[in-house]
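Key result, reporting period 2: structure in, sequence out.
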């Protein structure tokens, strides 16, 4: 009730007019009945012959046209949902890919006013040249070519006036509408509409703050600093704010033009391999990747150098998640259904007690369909996997969906350049590199400053936990019955397990030692600890097998 009251109190005349505009547009496109039933009734037909928009086979098209008519905010929402087939289904997601930015350009006088206000100076003092004609125009911003006083040729991205306020109005209205739909209509709860709008709210605010794009450019440039085959535009911090972004002007060949080119100007197989490798490095090694790597955001420079542009949207993965992704990709490539399901359970995507019988069947069918013809790509398999998860009502982590969508785009670019491209053959070495890193105990501990404290605290808590357990057994607090003659054997085994665990953790901690005798590039004490741990473990296993 509080959020509804707040919403009503905040409505001014402009917002009320926008609400009327939205409702009129919804009725125009056939969503009037749905709108009428949003609050008090379930959206279900009362009679068999009654029309229900939700069952209309043309629903994806009608939604797309309606979103287009509703303007910038809804177009941006639709574009986001086009990346989430796990939420809205493949048909709607595919249709939303057709949404076009509502992009009437603003005048040069408006651009000049914004630039001078944001950069706190006269445009003629800031730039020696500034084109009055825009290079490109989108719904949120437009780009002009310019030249700095120091001589660098740049592209200046300028946010249109009033965009932020318009988005705030529309997002407030969206949140109010979907909260009511979610509250009163069971049919929609599985889609988690409030979650969709919250994700949109988060992403769009990142997009309209150009400071984020500047940071993304600098980070990706640093990640490829030692790779001369990949170029990221230079970002000029002194000439950038949250509403103006000044970056290096990229003068190259658009990827779509490279597709159509003939002759030896471009090495297309090399470019295809370079495209896949560079993106998978971003995902699996750096954990920081371009989230929208379609052909329009790729430029080819001299010597087949690949340039990524438009870095407003990126994906970020932590170390554990990117290593989990490696496991998933290997299982998909190996068509390992049981391994894939176990990995999803480990990642918390599936409940451990879920009946996976039919899911296994559908996954086997998916793998057979997309890998039976010696296909060596992941695009269709990943997209179908997302759709399958949506069919089962399983919401995958945003990071996985973003990664899958990125692979789909980059693979499309690669195969357009080289139809014989073996994507899995390119990905496998990168996946193996990450998996080897995971197996390198010294490296994994050395890279985490908190590891020493973590293992120390674990050791400190282990003995009190053991003492507390014994105390409870002695006082009959634990409702467990032991046969008297087996107590000594159980305690002995438990003690051995504690000793092995303690040795293993102590040896791991010892890996952080940088002085003293070394063996195999590791501290001698750590190596000896692992050897003793292995021997005790082997004795324990052999003893267990003998007693059986």
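The corresponding designed sequence is given below.
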């Amino acid at each position: 009730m509080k959020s509804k009251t707040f919403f009503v109190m905040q409505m001014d005349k402009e917002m009320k007019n926008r609400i009327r505009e939205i409702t009129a547009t919804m009725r125009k496109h056939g969503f009037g009945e749905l709108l009428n039933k949003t609050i008090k009734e379930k959206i279900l037909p009362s009679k068999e012959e009654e029309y229900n928009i939700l069952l209309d086979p043309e629903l994806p098209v009608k939604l797309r046209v309606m979103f287009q008519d509703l303007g910038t905010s809804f177009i941006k929402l639709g574009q986001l949902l086009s990346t989430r087939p796990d939420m809205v289904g493949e048909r709607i997601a595919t249709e939303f890919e057709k949404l076009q930015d509502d992009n009437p350009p603003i005048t040069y006088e408006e651009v000049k006013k914004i630039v001078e206000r944001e950069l706190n100076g006269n445009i003629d003092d800031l730039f020696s040249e500034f084109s009055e004609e825009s290079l490109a125009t989108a719904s949120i911003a437009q780009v002009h070519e310019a030249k700095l006083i120091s001589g660098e040729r740049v592209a200046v991205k300028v946010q249109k006036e009033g965009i932020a306020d318009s988005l705030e109005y529309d997002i407030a209205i969206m949140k109010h509408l979907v909260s009511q739909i979610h509250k009163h209509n069971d049919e929609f709860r599985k889609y988690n509409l409030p979650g969709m709008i919250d994700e949109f709210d988060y992403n769009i605010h990142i997009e309209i703050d150009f400071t984020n794009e500047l940071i993304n450019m600098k980070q990706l440039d640093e990640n490829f600093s030692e790779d001369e085959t990949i170029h990221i535009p230079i970002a000029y911090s002194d000439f950038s704010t949250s509403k103006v972004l000044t970056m290096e002007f990229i003068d190259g060949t658009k990827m779509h033009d490279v597709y159509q080119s003939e002759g030896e100007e471009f090495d297309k197989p090399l470019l295809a391999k370079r495209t896949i490798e560079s993106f998978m490095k971003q995902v699996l090694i750096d954990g920081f990747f371009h989230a929208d790597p379609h052909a329009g955001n790729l430029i080819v420079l001299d010597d087949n150098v690949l340039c990524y542009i438009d870095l407003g949207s990126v994906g970020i993965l932590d170390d554990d998640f990117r290593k989990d992704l490696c496991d998933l990709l290997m299982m998909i490539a190996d068509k390992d259904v049981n391994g894939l399901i176990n990995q999803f359970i480990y990642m918390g995507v599936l409940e451990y007690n879920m009946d996976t019988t039919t899911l296994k069947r559908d996954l086997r069918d998916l793998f057979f369909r997309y890998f039976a013809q010696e296909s060596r790509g992941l695009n269709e398999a990943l997209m179908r996997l997302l759709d399958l998860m949506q069919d089962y009502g399983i919401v995958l982590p945003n990071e996985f969906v973003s990664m899958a969508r990125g692979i789909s785009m980059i693979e499309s670019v690669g195969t357009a350049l080289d139809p014989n491209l073996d994507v899995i053959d390119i990905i496998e070495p990168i996946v193996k590199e990450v998996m080897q890193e995971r197996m390198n105990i010294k490296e994994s501990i050395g890279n985490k400053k908190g590891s020493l404290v973590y293992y120390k605290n674990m050791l400190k808590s282990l003995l009190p936990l053991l003492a507390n357990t014994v105390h409870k057994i002695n006082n009959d607090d634990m409702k467990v019955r032991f046969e008297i003659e087996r107590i000594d054997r159980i305690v002995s085994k438990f003690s051995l397990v504690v000793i092995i665990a303690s040795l293993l953790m102590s040896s791991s901690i010892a890996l952080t030692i940088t002085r003293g005798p070394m063996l195999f590039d590791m501290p001698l004490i750590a190596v000896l600890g692992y050897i003793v741990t292995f021997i005790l473990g082997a004795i324990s296993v052999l003893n267990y097998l003998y007693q059986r």
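Confidence is low (pLDDT under 50) at residues 1-9, 39-49, 444-454, 480-485. The two ends are 65 Å apart (CA to CA). This case is discussed further under Risks and Mitigation.
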